[in-house]
Amino acid sequence: MTRETTLQALWRLNRGFPLVIGVLLVINILAYALMSLLVTPKVSALERRFIEEQAQVRSLRQLHSSAASPQELFRHNRDDLEKFREFIPHKGQFTALIQELFSLAQGAGLTINQVNYDPRPIPGERLLQYGLNFAVTGDYGQIKRFVFSLEQSSRLIAIEQISLSGAAVDGQNRVSLNLRLSTYFKTEAS
């Protein structure tokens, strides 16, 4: 039998069979097109994200694999926090801080006329955060020495904002420095 006669014989025996195969073939082509256009890009994006997150997990495990147990880490961090709290002075030392600021300014050849401060309690910590604002004027070298001496101070002082402005006064170049600092003190209850 030739190929044509085989197909004609199949058609005569069961006319529904070739129609079912044709319909299944069209459904298969449509499913492949749908998968290629919609599903495959989403799956690829999810695979990339999964691989990236897996790499992050591996790197975190490597960082923490050499670390101690959670209990040891807790004890270590608690000890560090206690050491830090020992370093924070009592609020009665505030005047010593102001004296140190004036002394540092004088050492740099500058004068502080006024220091504005704003104490704010930190809830639950038994600490006061003092915001300090003041200005000094001098030449650039004096300003630079003063800021350096502030940074080298043994006190816990954070320079939160610094602004400079320059002007010529009596033929001399003068720089005005406005500073906002913050520091911490223990309260009475500490």
Fold and architecture overview:
The N and C termini lie far apart (104 Å). This protein folds into two domains: 3-61, no CATH class; 89-186, Alpha-Beta Plaits (2-Layer Sandwich). The mean pLDDT is 85. With 190 residues, the chain is α+β, with helices and mostly antiparallel strands. The protein has helices spanning 3-13, 16-65, 70-87, 94-107, 140-152, and strands at 115-122, 127-138, 157-169, 172-186. It has a four-stranded antiparallel sheet with strand order 1-2-4-3. It has five helices and four strands; from the N terminus they run H-H-H-H-E-E-H-E-E.
From the structure above, extract its key features.
2 domains, alpha+beta, single chain, Alpha-Beta Plaits, 190 residues, 25% strand, 4-stranded antiparallel β-sheet, 5 helices, 4 strands
Briefly, what is this?
It is built from 5 helices and 4 strands. The chain is of the alpha+beta class. The model has no long low-confidence stretch (mean pLDDT 85).
